[in-house]
Amino acid sequence: EVPLVLDASSESVTKTSKAIELLKSVGAYADIEKVKASRNLRSGKGKMRNRRYVERKGPLICYAVDNGITKAFRNIPGVELCCVDRLGLLTLAPGGHLGRFIIWTKGAFEKLDSIYGTAAVASASKKGFKPPHAIMTMPDLSRVINSDEIQSAVNPTKAGKTRAHAPLKRNPLKNKSAMERLNPYAKVAAQMQAAAEKERTAAKAKKSTKVRSAVGAKFYESMKVESNYQGELFDSFATWIHGKPEEEEEEGEEEA
């Protein structure tokens, strides 16, 4: 049962064995077993800095007067104790996670109204403090909307055409139809630009064909000369390949 409130005599418990029996009697010792099972070595260098082990958080015991309760529960793994006058946000919700299991003593639970006040009475220890009110008394929004009181007051569902979505905005620089709506002359300008580009391409091709034919003919003639080893540069080479002419050979023999 939540909230779990213990009798006022629980604040006078001084032995750990009695504290364990008390937790088992109220069914809270399963959380202690969970804490024991979660104990592990800390990763990183923290284990060399006097914080070797890590474990989960256990139940929080909130008391009003310390008559030995802190000594009884302080050696139980995971259990934390806090006086009701010194409650803090990170004590009630470690790491910002709501829903911690809290065990109250009767004196601590009765003292909450005087410390934090109620909706009608302000706090006795915090000047002018009242707990914040919920904006909605019924947090189940779907239940509120579907209730008979709300459905009888709202307008009936409209029949017929449904409201169309907003038109999709298109980029006129990439979409021809959008550009033509903005600039009707854009279609004519595009056609003129395409025709001019076509003319330029044809003229360039015609010009390059003439140039290539003259250059190509000249290159072909040079290839023919080089393949037949003709010209002044290849006279000695041609003699080495084909030998000397017969007239030169006869003149050489007569001289000899």
What labels describe this entry?
256 residues; alpha/beta; four-stranded parallel β-sheet; two-stranded antiparallel ribbon; 11 helices; 7% strand
Description:
Helix 3 links the parallel strand 4 (60-63) and strand 5. Strands 1-6-4-5 form a four-stranded parallel sheet. The protein has helices at residues 16-25, 29-37, 69-73, 89-92, 106-116, 141-145, 148-153, 176-182, 186-227, 235-242, 246-255; strands spanning 4-6, 40-41, 53-54, 60-63, 80-83, 102-105. The chain is α/β, with parallel strands linked by helices and 256 residues long. It is elongated and about 140 Å long. The termini are far apart. The longest helix has 42 residues, at 186-227. The chain contains eleven helices and six strands.
Write a brief structural summary.
The chain is built from 11 helices and 6 strands. It is an alpha/beta fold.
Question: How would the blueprint of this fold be written?
Answer:
Elements: E1 4-6, H1 16-25, H2 29-37, E2 40-41, E3 53-54, E4 60-63, H3 69-73, E5 80-83, H4 89-92, E6 102-105, H5 106-116, H6 141-145, H7 148-153, H8 176-182, H9 186-227, H10 235-242, H11 246-255
Parallel strand pairs: 1-6, 4-5, 4-6
Antiparallel strand pairs: 2-3
Task: Assign an overall shape.
Answer: elongated
Provide the helix percentage. Answer: 40-55%
Helix segment count? 11
How is the biggest beta sheet arranged? 4 strands, parallel
How confident overall, as mean pLDDT?
A: 85
**Poorly predicted parts:** none
Q: Report the sheet-strand fraction.
A: 5-15%
Radius of gyration: 50 Å
Structural class: alpha/beta
Numbering strands along the chain, what is their spatial order in the largest sheet? 1-6-4-5
Whole-Å distance between the termini?
A: 138 Å
